[in-house]
Amino acid sequence: MLDILSATVPIFLIVGLGFGVTRVGVLKRRDMTVLTTYVVKVALPVLVFVNVAGRSLHDILNPTYLLTYAIAAMVMVALAWVWNRARRVRPARGAAISLAVSGTNDGFVGFPIFLILFPEIAGLAVGMDMLVDNVLIIPLAIALFASASDEDTRWDRRLACMVKGVISHPMVIAIAAALLFTAAGITLPPMIDRAVNLVADSTSAVALFSIGGMLVGLKMGAQRADLAASVIAKLLIMPAVSVGLVMLLPMLGLPHLGSELRAAAVLTCALPSMSMVAALGEQYGEGEFGAAAMMLSTILSFLTLTAWMLVLGLLGWL
């Protein structure tokens, strides 16, 4: 429990600061849109670039680990689609639910926990997590949100809009630039590198601060069912799916994972929803739902992560 507290308490402190500053009126709720725009379009793309550029492809291409996270995430997106269709959820909310149940907070919560549990493979595990996040989960979420914003147009125009939205999004551009720099062996000059890292380092604080501000005046209302389903799916169903995949994929001929990587893969899927769900959702009118999903899943993960660690211990993986 202390391992989890050391990782999550700073998150709540920064979120609480954002809530308090907004609650007393130093900043307004509408100011959070500016902050989330900065996170999504500037700071987070720079953070993605920093984390991908220069990293050896051999280090972040373990097929069993990558497929475990990627397939589990796509299973959750499929389950979210079923839920959204059954409840006739509006498209923007459906996109937010899909991201809330599939994307994990590996940067702000997972990395500190991994450093404590298995420091030798923590960087490798989070690097592979971020590769799946930035190549698959976040571009898919951007496509779903883009589609939702053009729901009244013809399907071909919606498809064109989705493709354009994904290709032109700063985070996707950052991934492409990072891979290009790596392939070409280009490194940034020291002064530019320091400036880039300063911007990247601002991502977590600004994102968490803005989430706190978005919680001011939050009304649960009709989103209670969607929120409860999202949190249950993220914290319980996704890691259960990953346990099955870790066992199944080697039976299909993929390399076996060591016990630490198996534990890291399951715990990745057991992490709370990524803060990106609030920042990106805010751009499409779903910031409140995203903030609530991120906060509630983080609070409950105190209990569920401990339970999954016990399960992994019984399996001999931790």
Description:
The mean pLDDT is 83. This protein has one domain: Na+/H+ antiporter like fold (Up-down Bundle), CATH 1.20.1530. It has helices at residues 2-23, 31-52, 63-87, 91-102, 106-117, 119-149, 155-167, 170-184, 190-214, 224-251, 259-270, 276-282, 287-315. It is globular. Helix content is 80%, strand content 0%. The protein contains 13 helices and no strands. Helix 2 (31-52) packs parallel to helix 8, helix 3 runs antiparallel to helix 4 and helix 4 packs across helix 10.
How would you describe this structure in keywords?
318 residues, mainly alpha, Na+/H+ antiporter like fold, 13 helices, 80% helix, 0% strand
Q: Indicate the overall shape.
A: globular
Instruction: Give a count of the beta strands, DSSP E runs of length 2 or more.
Output: 0
Would you state the CATH class?
A: Mainly Alpha
Low-confidence stretches: none
Short description:
The protein has 318 residues and is mainly alpha-helical.
Secondary structure layout:
Elements: H1 2-23, H2 31-52, H3 63-87, H4 91-102, H5 106-117, H6 119-149, H7 155-167, H8 170-184, H9 190-214, H10 224-251, H11 259-270, H12 276-282, H13 287-315
Helix pairs in contact: 1-5, 1-9, 2-8, 2-9, 2-12, 3-4, 3-6, 3-10, 3-11, 4-6, 4-10, 4-12, 4-13, 5-6, 6-7, 6-11, 10-11, 10-13, 11-13, 12-13
